[in-house]
Amino acid sequence: xxxxxxxxxxxxxxxxxxxxxxxxxxxxxxxxxxxxxxxxxxxxxxxxxxxxxxxxxxxxxxxxxxxxxxxxxxxxxxxxxxxxxxxxxxxxxxxxxxxxxxxxxxxxxxxxxxxxxxxxxxxxxxxxxxxxxxxxxxxxxxxxxxxxxxxxxxxxxxxxxxxxxxxxxxxxxxxxxxxxxxxxxxxxxxxxxxxxxxxxxxxxxxxxxxxxxxxxxxxxxxxxxxxxxxxxxxxxxxxxxxxxxxxxxxxxxxxxxxxxxxxxxxxxxxxxxxxxxxxxxxxxxxxxxxxxxxxxxxxxxxxxxxxxxxxxxxxxxxxxxxxxxxxxxx
Length: 330
Hints:
The protein is an all-alpha fold. It has 13 helices and 2 strands; from the N terminus they run αααααβαααααβααα.
C-alpha cells in the first residue's frame, strides 16, 4: 500500500511539473506574438484562437485516455468526419429532430472506438495498424454515404448555434464566446473527473504503466481496453458534432490530418507516449499551444509549410524531453 501511495505521489508531482512547463510555454508564446503583432492580442483574435482550439481540444481529450492506457488512435480525424456525416443524414436526409442527430453522431464515434478496442484487445492487432485501418474505413464510409458531396444543415434547425451561438453573450452582453469553447471546457472537466475519479480512469493508468502486471492482478484486459477506446470515441463524436455545427455542414473530405494535431496536443501537454502518465489539463494546454502558435505564425505571414515544420519540431522536442525525464526517474 505504501509503495502504491509513493508511486501515486511521484506521478502527481511529475504531472504538476509537466502542466507548469506547458502553461509557461503557452504564456511565453502568447507574449511573444502579442509583441510581434499589434493585431494578435485583440478580443476577436483571441476568440478565433478559442474556436480553433475547440475541435482539436475535444479530439485530444479522447486521444488522452487512449495514450495514457498505452495505445494510440490514428483514426480520430476521419471518424470525426463520419460522426458529422451520420448526424447530417439523420437531420437533413431523414428529417429527424436535431437531438436525435446529435445522439447518433456521438454514438457513431463510440461504435468506431468500440471496434478499435475489439481489434486491439481481442484480435491482438497492433493499435497502429488497427486504427490506421479504421481511418480508411471511416473515410471511405463518409464518401460513400454522402456520394462525395457535402450535406448542408437546414438553417431553420439552428444547428449552427450549437457551436457558433453564444450562451455567454446573452448573459453578459459583449462577451460573445462561442458555445463550441464552452463545450470543450465542459468536456475537459468531465474527462478530468473520469480520468481521476472513476474505475476506468484508474485502469487507464494501470494498463499504461504495466499491462502484464494488470493482467496478472486479475484485470479483464479485453473489457477495459475496449471500454477505453469506446470512451475516447465518444469524445471524437462530440468533436464531430461541434465541427459540423461550426461549418453548418458535413464535409466528407474533411478530417484527415486532425489526428496528428490531437496527438500533438496530448504530447505537448505532457502525456507520455509510453503510457501511464498525463492529465486532461495538460492536454488542453497543449491544444492551446498548437492553435496559438498556428495563429501567431499566420499573423506574421509565415508560410503554411513552415507552420507545419515548426509544429513537427515542437512534437519531436516534447517526446524527447519525455524520454529524458523517464530516464532520470529510473
